[in-house]
Structure prediction request, 909 residues.
Amino acid sequence: MPKQDLKEMMKEKAQAVQSVVSEVGSIEEAFRYAIDITRKQGGTVLAAPGLGRQDASAFAAFRALCEQNGVALVKESLRAEIGKLHTGFTVADYGIAETATIVQESSCEDLRIATMLSEIHVAVLPAARIKPNAMALENELKGEMKSAPSYLAFISGASRTADIERELTIGVHGPQELHILILDGDQA
Amino acid sequence: MITTPHSVKEYRGQLKKALENEFLGTTLDNFATAYKTSRAKAFEGIDLEGLIQEIAAGKDASIPCLEELFALFKVRAEAAGVTVHAAHTATEANEIISSIARANGVRKIVKGKSMTAEETFLNTHLEKAGYQITETDLGEWIIQLRHEGPSHMVMPAIHLSRKQVAELFTRVTGEHQDPDDIDGMVKVARRELRQAYLEADMGITGANFAIAETGTLGLVTNEGNGRLVTTLPRVHVALVGFDKLICDLKSALRILRALPRNATGQAISTYVTWITGANECAPGPDGRKEMHVVFLDNGRLALAKDPVFSQTLRCIRCGACANVCPIYKLVGGHNYGHVYIGAIGLILTYFYHGRENARAIIKNCLNCQACKSVCPTGIDLPHLIKEVYRAVLEVEGKKPVKNVLLSRVLKDRRLFHFLLRRARLAQKPLAGGGDLIRHLPLFFSKEHRFRSLPVVAKNPLRDIWEHINPRLPKPRYRVALFGGCLVDFVYPEQAEALLKLTREHDVQLEYPMQQTCCGLPAKMMGENETAREVAVQNLKAIDPANYDWVLTLCASCGSHMKENYAKLLADEADLPVKVQQLRDKIIDFSSFMQNVLKVAPEKFVESHKKVAYHSPCHLCRGLHVTKEPRDLMKTAGLDYVPAKDEEVCCGFGGSFSIDFPELSAELLKRKLDNVEATGAGVLVTDCPGCVLQLRGGMDKRAAGKVKVKHIADVVAENLKR
Prediction:
């Protein structure tokens, strides 16, 4: 399936799970998106653990941008920050268009905390990494599982429940919003 | 603590109370309606039948080698720092888990939702051992606080109203909670449980998958509590049934494609988590999680070896068999299972929680096939329910009198038919010259008075057959009519209507006189031996090779002969070919008219009579015929108006309506309400059993009665003279 169709499918399916999908042209644009939404919602702390691990220079740029905007950026020992985190900022490993899912290898504990205990989760998804369905990811997933320990997360939308009178309610345990920023181009 | 009645009498008392619970009745009815739509939408564009077959094949490949898969899982997981245990019984599993807690100096425990832990009553065990344990799934937390078991495998608190939850939360938090602010109550749980995660030393979860090739656990959740339970505490224990072991990731992904869609109509659950090995965990020893997986046998390994019941281990706990069950819809999960609820629950109760707990509930099945039609792994649930019932009867050796009588009588066709004729004499004074008995004799208790009963016909079909069925000189088809007891002895006029139509279309009908009851009533009562004997008698009476078709006006007879004869006669060396031939030639009335005779509208008067339709369980799900009767009504010049829940059981279910008259009456009431709401003057159906139930119920209603007719009747009526 062409990349454009996969992006469109991802956007369409995201509506069913109340995820917000946008496209960004660069990682800096994603940084700005995360900072803006954090400020708009009155948050003060942004956690970006996976990013620090992958790309030191990007992280430095992010930190500078955060400082300019009065938002604190944290990336490690996040257990100490539980309760303060507003936005978890991550880069997804894969996307699954059929279900608007992002896939994240989360064996790093800080990455898990950022995506589970923040108020909102902003995930950058490189367009080239969107697959039509989970079956198309079988080999990649198996590869991760074989290099244990591994903690692979499929995330499709915000934490939800329908346990009281079957009424859909968002944000019971995990983040209350999921923003997926599809990053096109070679930056990915 | 969960208690389940051990006797039908006690059970009926409990069911009556449940029927009075209006909130439950409305909630579950709305849920059933919404579920049907959302499930259909979720599977749009997916080859569901193909997917079911693939899942079943994957499960069937794993089930015979669960012990090998366990060994492989253990090697892989232990290589990644996990300790893997096997527990033979529920008690052993609970003890292993409390000893892990002891060894790690645990005090507080948080728990993700796990039916397997419900099965072993793990919480009770751990609390007795002095641990503080908090359920974190919202529904599970609610029922834990209320000291109840789950009433649904996926939605454990579906039986509770927002008002009840608000009262509970007010008590727990000491602050007033507004019942209409569900969002606010969810936030209460968020706040309270957040604290529990942070304080816990140990997290306990179940698992949806245990993938042997990589030693991976798969967890499917919506709330995200499973992720927190497996991340924050320093110890993680997963309690997993042996049946969750599967060979590879591919099988897991295939199941995942069906599980959320079939459970809640979601394309995917919000969080699907795959854990392989002991992951990073700051407070754990050496910064790693202390991780244990406890596999529970508790009878599964024995089940795996059983030729009939091994397929129960295919179950992926989606809960759909409850969602569509007309009985669950009336009485809820606490009255429809023990720990496991729904159709699969009736079966599993016998194997995991014993005969006494299964004894009464196992009888509470209409055999309407609704569960089977939505099972994502293709388990033949209604069949297995009857097999468990049979096993309970055999083991207890105390057969109800009606079983003994039925078996004795059915096996001897002449005696059976003699008694049916005599029944007319006994009924005569009660009918007052009409064709319905409105006042049942006193030996029927008052619960049975919800419907009038028909009178046995003065002249059974077999007696008048030669007079009403002239020979045709050059017929297009030669067709055997399988009457079934009701058409033969109660409603011969349905066959007369059929004859009018077949004569018009140059079809020669024959009525093999040695035919007898199809045997379904015997199977329903767990009397397989009797069912087998009459099946043989029918195969001897009707040689399918002599006919183009074997037509039946009774969907129940038809689907029983098509589906069950092969199972019942599997050991009869001489018969398999005949069974198969019969299977291929059995056809229902509407399909015969529409697809074989291709009846033309020109033959019929366009009466535009407004008719509603009831789709018999054994026609729409047994024989998979749905389009033909609706098309045929239109062909025959009738105006068919759809009714709500057309394909939901009318509540007859043969002997079911005798065992559980209150449930039968309520199902009938809802059915007739839905029909009356259409404004139709006639209710059409194509099974004489449903005619009996629906006509009997309509007769008890106030003025403005809707007429109930077999489809052969209404079609023949409109034939141009």
User: Anything to note?
Assistant: The two ends of chain A are 19 Å apart (CA to CA). The CA atoms of residues 53 and 140 of chain A lie 20 Å apart. Chain A touches chain B through 50 residues (CB under 8 Å). Chain A has a mean pLDDT of 93.
